[in-house]
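Request: Give me one sample?
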Amino acid sequence: MGVKEDDQAKSLRERLLGTERTLTRSGAERLWKTGRGAAGLAFSALGGRLRGKGEGLGAADARAVAQLVSRLGELKGLAMKAGQILGYIDPTLPEELRGLLSVLQTASPASPFPQVEAELRTALGARADLLLAGLERQPISVASIGQVHRARLPEGTEVAVKVRHPGIDEAFRSDFRTAGAGSTFAALLVPGAASSVRGFIEEARTVMLEECDFALERERQATFARLLADDETLLIPAVEPDWCARTVLTTRWTPGRSLDAFLEANPSQEVRDRMGIALFSFYVGMLYRHGLFHGDPHPGNYAFREDGRAVVYDFGCVRHFEPATVLAFSTLLEAVRADETPRMSEALEALGARPPTDAEGRAMLRTLLRGFFAPLLEHGAHPMHPGPGLEAQQLLRDKRFLAKLSLPGRFLFLFRLRFGLYAVLARLGSVVDWGTLESRWAEEAQQRGGTSA
């Protein structure tokens, strides 16, 4: 399977990156526009499913989706986040529809350059002139929180300068004050999340506002760079701390090919496998080894280099889990692989959930968890499945069942990462013994009694 960026998506990307729009901050205006965006997303997704994966979008449908993508990109905030997620996490949508939505991973209308310049001057003071002298005016990437400009520091170092969209934190607060928008977003991450809506919305709100703090992201990126300094495949761009602030993040220029470009080059199976292991290790292995969880695996957050390494960008969405949580999650994995329902319930209780005690509820829980961990239940090397099985998908939409589980808000990004990562690894075409790989990390965590710093 794959979502190859076609000519229409490429054209849309170029048009968005060449457009400037001031971010809408007014609560009433955002409410109205976000409502239109949510309705458009729902209509596009439903229409796509009704047509079926075998049929493409008609010309009128494609134009409507392109207009929707533009509207979501102008809004930034939750609306754009929702479009990003739907573009890569839902394998039931037609390829063309997902391809157009995937444009939002790296492209949307940019904040006007005078606003970017003002943001840099406020953040860096007199030193901003030195940075602006070597800064390219048009951004190379525009995401939901900020936009990235290529630049050259006074001594000649090439860098990527990420500047926060002016007012984006205010826009997020406005979005989350609208309960409907917040619950829609949570439900995109975990279908049926409305049953535990308060905890999920609060977790999403915390994470989204943390993503607006580039000083926090700088610390997280430096931590990952330190932990992976000796990794032969993964590369984390070095931070330039003298050119950073709460609204500005400057890192070494570390380019690479997008996932689309990488796949178009038809890499060997050996290379596909090595890259799949590297990404799986980064997004899943780091949880077991260090209690760190990067919760945003969409394809715009990494690139593939000619030297055989993969670069990971954007460390705004990172959660830290205590050793006890890591141990409970490793126990849950082993219980599911061993098909021991009582141990599954015990592990979920340790994670803060409230598993059912009746026979029917336990059977449903087993189905849900085996769908969640489905790619890990096959023995031997095999391609990754893009998502949970049909029965598990149906259970994820069973609000009464999910309400019984009382899942903590932190499960929001555990679910999001799993399903998003499965979809990406399926596209990559890696053939790996995923279950043995993760079980080894889980066993090592149990032997250590938690995680290592």
Remarks:
- The radius of gyration is 21 Å.
- The chain has two domains: 7-110+168-209, 256-453.
- The CA atoms of residues 191 and 396 lie 6 Å apart.
